[in-house]
Amino acid sequence: MATSAAAKAGQTGKRIEVSIKKAIGPGDDKVHTWPHLVRAEFICALLVLFGMIVWALMLDAPLEEPANTSRTPNPSKAPWYFLGLQEMLVFFDPWHAGVVLPSFIIIGLMVIPYIDINPKGNGYYCFRDRKWELLTFIFGFHILWVSLIIIGTLLRGPGWNWFWPWEKWDPHRVEALTSVNLPYLLGLRDYFWSAVFGGVLVVIFFVVGTIAMYGWVVWLKGEEFMERWGMTRFFITSFLFLNMVAVLIKMLMRHMFNIKYVMETPWINI
Amino acid sequence: MSWWTDVKQQITESPVWQSIFRHGYDDTPRNRILMVSGNVWLHLHPSKVRRHATRMRFTWCMGGITFLMFLITVVTGVYLMFYYRPVAQYAYADMKYLEFDMPFGMLMRNMHRWAAHGMVIAVWLHMFRVFLTGSYKPPREFNWVVGVILLVLTLLLSFTGYLLPWDQLAIWAVTVGSNMGRATPLLGHEGPFAEFVGVNALYDVRAFLFGGGEVGPHTLLRFYILHCVFIPLVTSLFLAVHFWRIRRDGFSGPAL
Ligand code: HEM
What residue in A sits closest to B98 (Cα-Cα)? Predict the structure, then answer.
């Protein structure tokens, strides 16, 4: 209660300050929308339209043979903006890559304004005031999303095998499917105990990850920040963040150690 | 040239002219404000904005470009609709007809296609800009959420349009892209726990979206209606909210 009252008082204080500034004048840097903004928009629109027309004159939209449900092309690719998700299918089962991860991405984007309580950096470009926010966003957007789209678009050929741009797309290339599950790699042979072991690993990842993140945030920002941030915000943030990190870990495990699943059960695999 | 001035005066002072145009082009502060507030399109803007908000290097103009791409697809899309029938027998032939026989058909189709791609790219860059300037911080939290919804709608618009040419690219991209539907836990027939719920290939979320077990003629009609009517309408509603909120919340900028 006390904190929210204080916050309110702070807000009112700010409002009064702003209105005083408005009253005394030089704080206002406004210009007329006509012509200043309308002119910029108009010129921008003209240039973009011109660019679009040139693009449309030079490059034709693709049209392949008529649809044929009995002839599946190899590879079949989703539209390019979904190829990051299709690439995820290499590392996760369809329910995970196609349903859970996109939902987390959308929810994660939506909660950003509510979990970020840093008042600095509102309305201007800066790096130092919001280092961690920026690094997280750039990691998620540029490293995970955009680079996976580039891989899916340019480097995946028939059979969703990896082809460098200078390699010919050979539909008969055989890649040995040698990937194994983590429990198997560690010597477990029993289905039941493998599943238990994998499940425990997943739980441990989230528990230890959450604790580590708690410690990290306190170390970085101090107890006082953690109190202001609150447990709800902390848990939402750490859960989403750990999921993002898990994607990277799973990708590295697959590419470096050929590990398929951490946990395998008859219903879901992770 | 005095006759010209005369004629001009006669026209601009006629009751008809004055009933349409409320004010002239005089460069006075009052008129500058009327230009914006008296015009239904321009009054999406406030009549005065902070100086930095007019700068390309602040906004990258990306929200505006996204909206422009949307408008381009609306205009070219209407043109395409005149010639295109969402029926499996005709759709592909209509594409060929449009490309080879219709005046400006190929140009309109290309513009529509590339503007759709452009919109996806522009909306990502717009989101990135809004993130970099921290413009989602109070009081603009909710408009960011509206933005995320618009982002999803943009992708859905593009995706549903992908099917309409009814060529190999179209049906297979849509098949692959919507396989996630069939993998949805509980709701899809290949998802986890499907056997407990009793969904099957002809009766799950993907079948609901497709109007059948796989991409077929019924899917074409569904995607056509989603693409040309439903999603554009919903997008327009959210765009209205988005623009309204930008005005209500005020444009972001450094503290004065
Ligand atoms: C169809 C998609 C969209 C359109 C047409 C659109 C359009 C616009 C326009 C014209 C502006 C004015 C400033 C500018 O041009 O940058 C704006 C501002 C804004 N947009 Fe969007 N937008 C879209 C999607 C999004 C998305 C995906 C987000 C974020 C996830 C978003 C969040 C915002 C916010 C928070 C502002 C206020 C910026 C400020 O005050 O600095 N919008 N939008």
Answer: A63
